[in-house]
Specification:
2 copies of one chain form a homodimer. The first copy, chain A, has 2 domains: about 290 residues, Aminopeptidase; about 130 residues, Alpha-Beta Plaits (2-Layer Sandwich), CATH 3.30.70.360. Chain A has 14 helices and 18 strands. In chain A, the strands form 5 sheets. In chain A, strands 1-2-6-3-7-17 form a 6-stranded mixed sheet, sandwiched between helices. A 4-stranded antiparallel sheet of chain A has the order 11-13-9-14, with helices on one face. A 3-stranded antiparallel sheet of chain A has the order 4-5-18. The radius of gyration of chain A is 25 Å and the shape is elongated. Strand 11 of chain A pairs antiparallel with strand 11 of chain B.
Chain lengths: ~475, ~475
């Protein structure tokens, strides 16, 4: 039997089970829905056991003093103990549903219409997580074996939509049980229904606050204006100097460790049908593209690091005028990072820059823990990425392109704490209206996801040597 | 009889009357002291009549809907109707007295100690206003005449310490009665007890708010950071570009009308014993002097125009980080102006500058009424200034130097609405602790002020032709 055939035959049962799960309003941001999030976890654990996972548990998160929402963990060992270990990541909590009146059908009464499954969580992320259950069954139906060709671990958290507050601690606490050779993230999307793609990287981030101090107190600008340094002028110059005329970040050493965009990836990004006008409209009707010279918009937000001023303030900000030289000025900065930048080194560069940038009579301090989130990146020729791409290409019957994400969620913690490469297998679309009313997912794409998942374990098993080389 | 002799003889009575006036707590900023401010006005009007002024009135200010505190007006016509008309300006309200516990003696129980008269208003401005009453009597004692050699008008307001809110309206309403050829301002100080000086100019001011807009709403910096313009970056560059590397203001046409500092005045300013270190300490312990290249600190704050950022804000300014590209950024600017800059022209220059400074995709607006306060300036060789200087030199028996003020109070309104030159005759000192506990004034200097005032009317009468040429 072929995987596709198995999936088609079992699609009705799949959608029935997904609908049952989607009916549970597991809104993690709503304190009144804690019971529903738990019910959702228990439902999933039961379904994983029913799918054949010998181990499927509900994991508590947080501490007694700071209780979190439950995650689900499942495990299905390969027959060969030396087989690669793959960890699937997703989440079972969902976004709030306001404004409720804009939903065409109730968010927790899932319905299919015109090839779309509507309901909160249909795309983000229950529908997608669930295709793995169908996928692994299809894999076994094809192989006729009792266990998948790689050891499968599944970790589905319950707090992703409310900041994954206890997730990193959970990863650290359970590092041994979660040990794996590759992390399969199923919580992202593709470029378009007819342009299947996979993500190969996420930018990291580190932030800092810059505090600039001049006189001990606000001065009268009549008495002293033009004669002593103004902290707001110093701050403006400091912030203006963060970028050079080419839009490059002017911190010392900022680009030293940046891995150049490979020609191969650049070519593949260039083949994505990108509508700049639509993208700018999505960007709050931004009036123009801008950024580092020599890069396209997608290259800029996916593959290049940034310095961004997120906030600044100082002096008189209330109604009317006040002719002062203010005592202080402040700015909040964040830097999006790409491989292989180190957050702490970027902050050290900022400190050096600030030291040089402030004029005599002005003191500046940089406040940052220098920790941030490391960038995550798998080169397009990474064996796990190549295996994932082959699985997707088999399911879609066409070439799969590559994308990246401009920011990181818990994926960066996964990659860093578990020290394994990320492979993104997701079939969501921008059109899915995740986080918005009338969330939907293409039923066809969900089944394509299941099919790709069915192939994925074989493809990963076929690259066992490369995947386990780093053990 | 000589003026000095008359003044010495009448000093005890002078100080008795001053003390009686100082005992009235005419705090204009305190709504509960409205009756005291009125009592102070009536006391002064009575004293002016007693000194010989044929007219001395209490003037109401404001409107029925917005009642102000009373001013005092007095008039003493010269025998010759063609004689110059001099208007003396001062104020009879005082600053609040907090912190009361830091006063060595109660603020409204004036006492003399070690050649100093202590009490709220001793220097600012009751003590100084009152020396004019002694001065004009001394003038008449010397001349033996019944009227002063110039027509004397006196206007003493009651709201100077709370912003002179109704003063400009009063000037406009009473423009005819206040008509004059010269305005003698007695509300300022001298460089030092042994360095008598007079002020010859005050900087004007005009302000504006700059609003910068990018996307319609705050954007996620992971999704769009590095790809669209950030309003905070645009604002920082705009503010940083307000000054060139020499500290000059980079608005188009900004210096076109600036009257250069004359060699004569520059030389006289250079002769003031200026302690840069003490000045920086006074400037909130500013760490360094700064400003336009080619000018000393005093020249910068007295004689050169500025662009000052008084406040700026945008994006996330609360605790913690928020990785956004904010939708907007704002700044409040003010410009200190010197003769012969026009506030509206400076704002027009700002508008041009902002139009050129914002990058594609960013919109900026400048909000300003363009009105502001014109600079006031009398060249050191102005006949009225020269007359005032001669009067001071006769009183002090030494050369009198020149200063300016970096900002303007109601003096700019006086000069502009009454269209007459300003001559500053004041004997306050920086050490007088005006606006602070233990305000005091040198009794010797108050009598010197009276003596200068006694000479002033003769000196002005001697330059009648020049003073009245513009009528």
């Amino acid at each position: 039997m072929e995987a596709r055939e198995y999936i088609d035959q079992n699609a009705p049962g799949f959608f029935t089970a997904v609908a049952e799960w989607l009916a549970i309003p597991s809104i993690s941001a709503d304190p009144d829905r804690g019971g529903d999030v738990r019910r959702s976890a228990e439902f999933l654990a039961g379904q994983l056991r029913a799918a054949g996972f010998p181990v499927a548990e509900v994991w508590e998160t947080g501490t007694d003093a700071d209780r979190g929402l439950p995650a689900v963990y499942a495990e299905w060992p390969a027959a060969d103990p030396a087989a690669p270990v793959a960890l699937v990541y997703g989440h079972h909590d969902v976004q709030p549903v306001d404004p409720l009146e804009e939903w065409d059908s109730p968010p927790f009464e899932p319905v299919q219409r015109d090839g779309l499954l509507f309901g909160r969580g249909a795309s983000d992320d229950k529908g997608q997580v669930f295709f793995h259950l169908l996928g692994v069954r299809a894999n076994l139906a094809v192989s006729g074996k009792q266990a998948p060709p790689v050891t499968l671990k599944v970790l589905v958290e319950g707090e992703e939509e409310s900041g994954s507050l206890h997730f990193a601690d959970l990863l650290r606490a359970q590092r041994e049980r979660l040990r794996c050779d590759v992390i399969v993230v199923t919580d992202t999307g593709m470029w378009a229904a007819d342009v299947p793609s996979m993500c190969v990287g996420m930018r990291g981030v580190v932030d800092a606050q810059v505090d600039v101090r001049g006189p001990d107190f606000d001065l009268h600008s009549g008495s002293f204006g033009g004669g002593v340094p103004n902290p707001l002028h110093a701050m403006a110059a400091l912030l203006a100097g963060l970028h050079d005329a080419d839009g490059r970040v002017a911190l010392p050493g900022f680009y030293d460790k940046v891995r150049p965009l490979s020609d191969a990836e650049r070519q593949l990004i260039g083949r994505l049908p990108f509508d700049q006008k639509a993208w700018l409209a999505e960007a709050g009707n931004s009036g123009a593209a801008a950024g580092e010279a020599g890069y396209s918009s997608l290259e800029r937000v996916w593959t290049r690091p940034t310095a961004e001023v997120n906030g600044m303030w100082g002096g008189h900000t209330g109604p009317g005028g006040k002719t002062i030289i203010p005592a202080q000025a402040h700015a909040k900065l964040s830097f999006r990072l790409v491989a292989d930048q180190e957050p702490a080194e970027v902050i050290e560069g900022l400190r050096q820059y600030v030291r040089r940038a402030v004029p005599p009579g002005i003191e500046a301090t940089v406040v940052s823990d220098g920790q941030g989130v490391r960038p995550s990146f798998s080169p397009v020729d990474n064996p796990a990425v190549a295996a994932g791409r082959r699985a997707l290409q088999r399911a879609f019957g066409q070439e799969v392109l590559f994308t990246r994400e401009g920011g990181s969620g818990p994926e960066a913690d996964l990659a860093e704490i578990l020290a394994a490469p990320l492979v993104f297998i997701g079939v969501g679309l921008d059109a899915d209206r995740v986080h918005a009313p009338n969330e939907r997912v293409s039923t066809t794409l969900l089944l394509k996801g299941a099919e790709a998942a069915a192939y994925l374990w074989d493809e990963l098993a076929a690259t066992a040597a490369e995947l386990t080389a780093g053990r």
